[in-house]
Write a sequence for this structure.
């Protein structure tokens, strides 16, 4: 047992560390203790930097989308540190590259939690990567902020979801296309990458279309592998399906396969007025790598666009471009912002606010403090739901412009409450609801 200085009963570790840190400050003031030793004492007392993990693919098929999310989180960290950090402590990011390898995502997540001992992780894009790391976070009581729209049907006590649920993206997009305002389309080609998000998204979309009276014969469904490059046959099928009009593509293609898909669509003479593509995973950042002159008029459904006209968004776009230039990042000040970038950005601030409210970086305390957090994001106010770990956000539908930006053609009235379970496929299911004391119980 440890003993105190006067030989009495042992002191506890916390008191020892506090006294040690105070002694270190005193010695440093007299020049008797070096800076390195003082740093060690400060860290032991919980006053050193707070480690956070960044878990995004910097190589492989998903790098086209995920690199910018790493950059955004690092920018948010720089902003926060410049203003004194979190509770007076600087944030120290630990960046890893799972390289678009889903098994490697789990390995890297485990390393971040158990070896680096990060307080929180910001990361993942695809649902297969999120599903891969989920058991790691739940087993080790880690905390993940996930910034991308997804298929729903999940609610983990160890994840905060800042992207859209199906009722905040998939469903309103399809309803828009079916409306007179959106073109009154009656035939839908569901095309996606072959993994959990597109499969589940299209299950929801198919159920929704059938419920709205679309005949089975008017719905086609097809999938391609990650990094698929040859879309000639598929576009021929779409062209035949769209003959006579009234057809639209609902695209859940992810990653760099979007480039050859849009290129082949154009090569075969298809235009938005012939058969519009409504994309769920293509935003401004993906369009940077494409010839957008032939993509004018195609659509996407998100919760934010760079073109959102708010004072804070104009400033955010300006800061992001300046950050990329200063950091010497590829593209520099020509870089763009998009929905996942915004969601990654305000996720860092949600966590910061929760830590400051909890006065702790302990996961259980931060989780409870996060419920109901509000933040003025670049695109406008957002809020973490008080019960289901998802985010209240607006819904926007945009039309691609020649310069690779989006013209907003439809927006929801205010924020849309997130519903992780779709009314069209799981009407009787609910999330693991959170009560106001921070404990969990299944929805009846």
């Amino acid at each position: 047992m440890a003993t105190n200085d006067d030989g009495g009963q042992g002191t506890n570790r916390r008191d020892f560390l506090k006294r040690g840190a105070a002694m270190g400050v005193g010695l440093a003031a007299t020049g008797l203790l070096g800076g390195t030793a003082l740093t060690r004492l400060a860290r032991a007392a919980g006053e050193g930097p707070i480690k956070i993990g960044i878990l995004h693919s910097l190589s492989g098929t998903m790098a086209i989308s995920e690199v910018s999310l790493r950059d955004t989180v690092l920018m948010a960290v720089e902003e926060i540190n410049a203003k004194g950090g979190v509770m007076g402590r600087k944030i120290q990011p630990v960046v890893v590259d799972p390289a678009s390898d889903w098994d490697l995502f789990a390995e890297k997540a485990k390393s971040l939690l158990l070896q680096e001992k990060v307080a929180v992780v910001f990361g993942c894009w695809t649902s297969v990567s999120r599903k891969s790391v989920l058991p790691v976070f739940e087993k080790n009581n880690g905390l993940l902020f996930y910034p991308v729209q997804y298929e729903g049907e999940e609610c983990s006590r160890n994840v905060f979801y800042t992207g859209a649920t199906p009722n905040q993206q998939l469903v309103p997009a399809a309803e828009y296309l079916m409306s007179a305002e959106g073109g009154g389309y009656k035939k839908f080609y569901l095309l996606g990458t072959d993994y959990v998000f597109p499969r589940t998204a299209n299950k929801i979309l198919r159920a929704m279309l059938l419920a709205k009276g679309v005949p089975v014969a008017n719905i086609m469904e097809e999938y391609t592998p990650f990094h698929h490059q040859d879309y000639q046959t598929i576009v021929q099928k779409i062209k035949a399906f769209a003959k006579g009009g009234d057809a639209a593509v609902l695209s859940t293609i992810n990653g760099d396969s979007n480039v050859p898909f849009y290129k082949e669509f154009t090569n075969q003479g298809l235009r938005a007025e012939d058969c519009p593509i409504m994309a769920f995973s293509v935003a401004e950042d993906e369009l940077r790598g494409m010839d957008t002159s032939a993509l004018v008029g195609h659509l996407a459904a998100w919760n934010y666009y760079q073109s959102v006209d708010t004072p804070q968004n104009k400033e955010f776009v300006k800061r992001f471009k300046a950050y990329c230039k200063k950091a010497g990042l590829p593209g520099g000040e020509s870089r763009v912002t998009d929905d996942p970038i915004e969601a990654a950005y305000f996720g860092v601030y949600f966590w910061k606010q929760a830590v400051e409210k909890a006065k702790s970086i302990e996961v259980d305390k931060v989780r409870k403090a996060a419920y109901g957090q509000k933040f003025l994001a670049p695109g406008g106010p957002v809020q973490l739901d008080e019960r289901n770990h998802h985010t209240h956000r607006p819904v926007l539908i945009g039309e691609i412009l020649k310069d690779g930006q989006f013209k907003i053609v439809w927006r929801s009235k205010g924020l849309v409450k997130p519903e992780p379970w779709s009314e069209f496929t799981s009407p009787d299911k609910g999330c693991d609801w959170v009560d106001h004391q921070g404990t969990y119980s299944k929805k009846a």
User: Anything to note?
Assistant: The two ends are 50 Å apart (CA to CA).
